[in-house]
Predict the structure.
Amino acid sequence: MDVFLPIAHMDVNIAIIIAFGLIVGFLSGLTGVGGGFLITPLLIFVGVPPLIAVGTGAAQIVGASAVGSYAHWRMGNVDMRMALVLLLGSWSGGFLGVHVAKILEHGGYFGLVVAFLYVGLLGFIGISMLIESILAVRGKKKSKAVSSGKTWADRLPWQMDFPVSGLRTSVLLPLFLGVAVGILTALMGVGGGFVMVPIMLYVLKMPTKVVVGTSLFQLLFTTAEVGILQAGMNHAVDPYLALALVLGSIFGTQFGARLGARMPGEQLRLVLALVVVAVAVKMGLGLVIPPAHVFQVSQVL
Amino acid sequence: MKTLWHRILLIFTLLGSIGLSPAWAGTMPDSAAQVITATGTDRIDVTSRFNGRDILIYGALSHPGNIIVVLRSPDTTVTVTKKVQMGPLWVTGKKVTVSHFPGVLQILSSAPLAQILPQATLEKLHLLPQAVMTQAQLDPLPQQPKLWLQQVLESKKREGAFVLRENAVKIQDGRLFSVHLHLPSSIPLGRYTLNVYLVNHGQLLAQSADQIDVQQVGLEEWIARYAYEQPWFYGIALTLFLAFLGLGLGILMQRKS
């Protein structure tokens, strides 16, 4: 069913967009990894302008992550103090990022920057996931070196207690983490869980249960801020795209979660890693293959 | 479709008057020549399901001759970026904004233009692509403006917005003409002008001017306008809506299972 997108100003088969939401939701339900980093490239592949793909990608995460955040908050898995410090950072980062996006788009470089960021980031994530899951499937368990005693993080100023996580650390760490994630959300249309979760686990050393709840909670409000800024400043959020993606991903996540409970996790992560690498390769090829048309003409609204 | 029947009636009345008084038609100078045009529609509603549209243009001519039909949309602005090779990578190079350029320009005729009108007249009536290119404004002005404008023209040809079809207009019995136009799915909104020229022996005998309004209608028009006029309220409303939709559906599905 072809639908004319009022903001992206193009025709798109809306069934394909719903299918994207379903597939990505399904993968994220299966593996527990959020799928924002797959949505934006898929939208770009079907011809959505990069800035609108990024803005809409961020906005759809609001709908896709709302119920999970709410559930974790009800269960008390959100470290509110940590979440607020992170949000202070990510809202600043998001604000900065949306301004950078506007400047890049004005100069005509946004699409190129997005492609570079995706090739780099997805390539890195995909390959590290691939190595990890191949090792896991082979049955080799990496022994984690747990360092005890004082680390560099403990010597930073502005130490603060985070009772829910049961730790004391410098405010600077979550603040900077927040800024980085906010910029990623604005420039790539991702929630940033893939950056936030490992750092919370291994650098901040928060308990796993609290990490999942807190990261979901903060990314809900970060994507909401970035979605509003992208709509307000850059006219970059298409309502039909966002709606179709949210609908698809909610149903997809449910099926994925049910199926995932009955399937071995290592193989699932391997599948996801392969998908991520494939998207990175496709994006990378787009940078190397000579374009069909050296000149690109796009409509200004 | 009252207006359609009205126009058909008008054409037959005109045909009748021409037919019943051949002496009058034959002796009058060319200034009395007339062309009457009707369109299958004078309004095009762009909805979210809009995927292009065929329009029938037809009419009657008082004198034998050739017909040129020109449909032109309001001017639009486009950006042209050039990809340049940097090592193994293709990166975005220069960007030029082209304004005062028609979004849609379709020229259809019953014979090759060069054969039916002299170059000067074609230029005067803006029937040559070059005419479009001379009016355009480029910012910043590149070294070879013609090359960049040619790219805009080529891109518009590919998407079907720019059309030049000679021999497309059918003329029956020297009195009636008809042609089908096709508008692609992505077209600028606004008031389009439809000019029809009756020419003979290199002379412009008569012309008619009509308008076709292309407008976005329904919910999508409201959303698009709201998103542009009140982008902040639109952003906040959409984000809240998506959050509550996700929350509501998620809770509903968890209860069911």
